[in-house]
C-alpha cells in the first residue's frame, strides 16, 4: 500500500483526534482502547495494515497485539490481510443488503396478505 493510501484511511479513523498513547496500553486499559475502534469507519483497513505489517504493539482495528498474534498463528498462509478482510467486508455488506431486501419483501407480503383478507 502506498504511503498516500495509508494516510487516506488513517485520516478517517476514530482515533485521529485522540491521544495516540491511549492505543498503546497494557492490561485492562486495552478494553478502553478497543472501544475507540467500535464503529470506526476504517477498522478493517487499520487491522489489515497491522496484520500485514506485523505491528507488535498497540490496539489496531480493535485487536490487541496478543489477539493479532493468535490470528496470525491460526492463519499462517494468508499473504494479504488487506485483500482477505476487504473481501470479507464486501461479502458481509452484500449479505446485509440481501437480508434487508428479503425482510422488506416479507413485511410487504405480510401486510398485503392481511389487507386482502378484509
Question: What does this protein look like?
Answer:
With 118 residues, this protein is mainly alpha-helical. The chain has five helices and no strands. The radius of gyration is 20 Å and the shape is elongated. The chain starts with a helix and ends with a helix. The model has no long low-confidence stretch (mean pLDDT 86).
Brief summary:
This protein is mostly helical and 118 residues long.
Question: What key phrases describe this protein's structure?
Answer:
mainly alpha; elongated
Write the layout of secondary structure elements.
Elements: H1 3-10, H2 29-37, H3 43-52, H4 65-74, H5 81-117
What is the end-to-end distance? 61 Å
Number of strands: 0
Give the structural class: mainly alpha
The largest β sheet comes out as: none
Poorly predicted runs are none
Beta-strand portion reads under 5%
Order of helices and strands: HHHHH
Shape: elongated
Assembly annotation: single chain
Q: Rg from C-alpha positions?
A: 20 Å
Q: What average pLDDT do the residues reach?
A: 86
Q: How many helical elements?
A: 5
What percent of the residues sit in helical stretches (DSSP H or I)? 55-70%
Amino acid at each position: 500500500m502506498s504511503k498516500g493510501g495509508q494516510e487516506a484511511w488513517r485520516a478517517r479513523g476514530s482515533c485521529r483526534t485522540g491521544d495516540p498513547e491511549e492505543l498503546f496500553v497494557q492490561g485492562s486499559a486495552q478494553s478502553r482502547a478497543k472501544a475507540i475502534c467500535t464503529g470506526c469507519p476504517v477498522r478493517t483497513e487499520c487491522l489489515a495494515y497491522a496484520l500485514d505489517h506485523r505491528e507488535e504493539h498497540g490496539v489496531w482495528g480493535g485487536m490487541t497485539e496478543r489477539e493479532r498474534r493468535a490470528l496470525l498463528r491460526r492463519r499462517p498462509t494468508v499473504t494479504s490481510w488487506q485483500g482477505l478482510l476487504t473481501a470479507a467486508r464486501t461479502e458481509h455488506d452484500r449479505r446485509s443488503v440481501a437480508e434487508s431486501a428479503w425482510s422488506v419483501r416479507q413485511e410487504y407480503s405480510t401486510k398485503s396478505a392481511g389487507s386482502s383478507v378484509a
